[in-house]
Amino acid sequence: MNRLTLNLLGSFQLLLDHKVDARFESNKARALLAYLAVEHDAPHPRERLAELLWSAQPLDVVCGNFRRILANLRAVIDDRNRQPPCLLITRETVQFNIASDVFVDLIHFLSLAKTPKTESDWAEHLAQAAALYRGPFLDGFELDACPEFEQWTTAIRSEVALSAAALFCALAEYRYLHADDDAALALYRRCLLIDPYHEAAHRGLMRLLVDHGERSAALLHYSAFRRHILDELDAEPEPQTAELADAIRAGRLVAVGDSKGFVEANPSHIEWLGHECNVESVARTRTKQIALLSECAQQTERNRGCVVFIAGESGSGKSALLDAFVHQIRCSDQPWLIGVAACTKLAGIGIPCQPLIDCLLSIFGGGAEIQRWIDAAPPPTAASFLLNRDPGSAEFASSYGYATTHRLAPPFSSLHIQLAHELKRKALCQPVLLALDDLQWADIATLAMLFDLVQRLNESRLLLIGAYRPYFANRDESAHWLNELVQESRQHAEVCLIDLDQVDGREFIDALLDCEPNLFDDRFRRELFLHTEGHALFTVEMLRALCESGQCRRDPAGWRATDSINWELLPPRVEALIRRRVDRLPEIDRALLDAACVEGDEFTAEIAAAVCDLDLKTAIEHLSGALTHHYQMVTAMDMAHLGDRKVARYRFRHHLYRTYLCAALDKVQRSYLQQEVAAQKRSLFIEPPASFSNVATATQSEAPLI
What architecture is domain 1-178+187-194? Predict the structure, then answer.
């Protein structure tokens, strides 16, 4: 075979199956081949092709140059020995022969991209087209003094970019609907790299953020995009994008069902439930935490700056508490300068220190001055904060995209110093609040600057508040190293830690229910606590589901529960969040949890290991490792004495996790696991002790279907 492969997406690339001695005389020979391949539908007059490559020259000179370039091109591709040839040449015209043994990536890309969505292989064709796209058409290719060719290149490049952006966005939507969020994220980001104004891709990213529990980050993404198009195009986002942002802001967006579509809930009759945006309800349910934050604010007003970290798992109400306190500060008599931002995993690290820069933009009222600082003093030691503290963190720094070759210097770049100076200068006139959400996704430069500011808080009116998840899905599934930063910060400033995972869940439930007149008795409150354990998101969504199903009703005396409450109800938003977590479990972890859910809310590692045919050491490694720290599905309890032996006891982190897992088992699976658990219990314990009677009951009774 004498195959010719021409790649025009990205840099120009010509590949031949055989070796030839000739080489391209100049870029004009390459340009001629590219033009003929793209415009292969019709023959082109020789004179027209010559004028395309040599403008403003005498015709005889142009024609002579063209003959020489054409001869060089034929020699490079060895066209005289091809049957059929790649170039169909007459005295008057030249045409690229698509029927020859050739492959042109652009032609195949456009053909695959035009596959109708009704075709069964539509997604496969789009994936093939995406693999062909190496970059912009003829990326980096230039011809001097050829304006017509440049105009043609620009037009084709724009057309291809639009097709590529649409293709990546469509493929991202397909991956998203099929629960492949990582692939969807990568495709959305590639779409936006090609077309930063592609609003469907922006909406897709916002939905992904909301689906991952990062509502604040989704709203900040929208704000940044809106600001960008206002600055660049003097235009507003499309109505669909603005409506999506409004739905997220109002809490009307929830993920439901296997299709992962989004629906708008109708919370009009249950507004008292204290949704994340209802700051008054949050303030009433988090009185102790709000009081502590208020005390820190008063201390800051007295020229004693401090730091507050709000820690808690996803859905514990960190963002809601932060929003409520910021709202309280805005409404206070004391005028504060307030900067609010959020870090996000899905949007990537972007510009170093971007979250802090977003805070400062809102404080300083414009970006020109800050941008001048960044341009004049880019932080060259972005990774040095970690590298100086722990040389072993070089791998972690590299994973964020920072070279480990950055010089090791104290993290006091001129940018740090300039921003700290400006903040302290502003704080002389009025107190400053910097509120950062989702710090677990902060880039290294942001944390380096944050730690720098912590060391400069003495005798200042600067209040730093950061919210983060205390566990992080890193390689060793350990506690997030941001916990170490919290402890280290205590050496330089007064640091308060609010751990929402340690608050009294029953107290939260009582405060939430009492936001409105109600007749809920102690039994109802105990059952609600039993099923949600005071988890903020689970509690709110459970109450919302009970109200929407009519099991909780409001009469003139207040809210009351009906006689029959289905406590195994799994709200759509909670189900979607749990499904996302469960679907990502490795096979061994899912098998262990399936066996455990049949045993009960509390279970033993020995039984789960035996049912799954695993040795006990491996089972405990999984239960106390990834399932505890990475996926946060279970919690280790203790070693229980059973006669002359000990067993390892665990419990599901939330009852609703077990409810979901039980419902996901079909009748055959559930019956088989019940028999296996009962058999292993008899084998291990002979006669189960009284402390395990509740487990035996849970095993013998069939778990309810949802």
Answer: Orthogonal Bundle (1.10)
> To which H or E segment does residue 645 belong?
strand 645-652
Cα 346 to Cα 343: distance, rounded to the nearest angstrom = 9
CA 684, distance to chain mean position in Å, is 44
Backbone φ/ψ region at 559: left (φ over 0), alpha (ψ -120 to 50), beta = beta
Distance from chain centroid for Cα 375: 28
Q: Which of 288, 324, 686 is nearest to 502 (CA)?
A: 288
Q: In angstroms, what CA-CA distances link 591 with 183, 440, 613, 658?
A: 26, 29, 10, 13
Residues 6+ apart with CB under 8 A from 669: 594
Give the span between the Cα atoms of 46 and 50, in whole angstroms: 6
- The DSSP bridge pattern shows strands 645-652 and 634-642 to be antiparallel
Peptide bond just before 239 cis, omega within 30 deg: no
Amino acid letter, 68: R
Question: pLDDT tens across 627-678, in order?
Answer: 887 788 899 998 887 666 788 999 998 888 998 999 899 999 999 999 999 9
Domain boundaries for CATH 1.10.10.10 within the chain: 1-178+187-194, 585-700
Query: Smallest Cα–Cα separation from 688: which of 573, 608, 607, 626?
Result: 607
DSSP 8-state code for residue 703: P
Whether omega for the bond prior to residue 237 falls within 30 degrees of 0, making it cis, is no
**Order of strands, sheet of 102-104, starting from the edge strand that comes earlier in the sequence:** 13-16, 4-7, 102-104
> For helices 444-454 and 482-489, what crossing angle results, to 10°?
10
- Distance (Å, whole) CA 30 – CA 153: 13
- State the CATH architecture for 278-502: 3-Layer(aba) Sandwich (3.40)
User: How buried is residue 344: exposed, middle or buried, by Cβ count under 10 Å (0-12/13-18/19+)?
Assistant: buried
- The structure's pTM equals 0.58
pLDDT at 30: 92
Environment class of 683 (CB within 10 Å of its CB; exposed 0-12, middle 13-18, buried 19+): exposed
Amino acid type, 187: L
Instruction: Name the nearest CA neighbour of 469 among 653, 354, 242, 630.
Output: 630
CATH 1.10.10.10 fits domain 585-700: yes
The whole-angstrom separation of Cα 346 and Cα 330 is 29
- Helices 147-177 and 46-53 pack at an angle, to 10 degrees, of 90
State how beta strands 306-311 and 337-342 pair. unpaired
- For 458, other C-beta atoms within 10 Å of its C-beta total 12
* Residue in 465, 461, 356, 445 with CA at minimum distance from that of residue 364: 356
In DSSP terms, 612 is beta-bridged to: none
pLDDT tens track for 618-629: 999 999 988 887
| Look-up of token digits 């330089």 | 492
